[in-house]
Amino acid sequence: MPVSELRSASRTARPAPIASKFHLVGLLLLLFGTAVAGFFAQHHAGTPASSASAGQLADHGKAIHIYLVALFMDWALFYYCYAGVRSRGGTLASLSAGRWTSAKDVLTDMAIAIPFWAVWEGVAYGVHYLLDLFNPTATAATVDSLLPKSLVEIILWILLCLTAGFCEEIAFRGYLQKQFHAFTGSIAIAVVLQGMVFGIAHGYQGWKNVVVITALGLLYGVLAAWRRTLRVNMISHAWSDAWEGWLKLILFH
Predict the structure, then answer these.
(1) pLDDT over threshold 50, residue 61
(2) What residue spans define the domains of the chain?
């Protein structure tokens, strides 16, 4: 969305909240708890006494277990948001802003998702590059050891990517962005706030990745505000996770 359109949209009538203020605070507390747990996971992985390999958040033997936990957490996040919306008489469409109704819708969304992914990759690389320039010695425990290797792990990883594309877009762009818009009256502020929460919630990946993911969250937020639907977001999010965590490694390593 061009800046002029985003500013214009921020001046439109304030929408009604899709869930209560207390429900929103509850979600923020849950995400904050996740961020704190991620911080301690990073700290533990970086200590010499850690049982994990140096610089790793876990060894590969725990991969399937962690995939299943992540699947549960994403669906629990989705259910929490959906329950809050349902309590006010809303539906899934209140969060996702609709579904495909024609082949034209599918082709249009795919035509937008492809160049958006290219921009996504460019921003991710650019932010990483700038952070490395300003602080080249900073390191963080990685999740590289958890990337899929066996067929079962690959299937679970793809399922996890699809789940993240659906559930996290519903939670951050479908729920949080709309709630922030309703309570602040500004779509621009809503985009920024949800992007910051999105980044902080990924604290287990280290502060550099938090900055990168925040920037990517802002991109997703602008896309959702422009399209007024999460279909392209879900496609791009799921594909990006699958590409970064598996396909790129197969093709370039």
Answers:
(1) yes
(2) 15-252
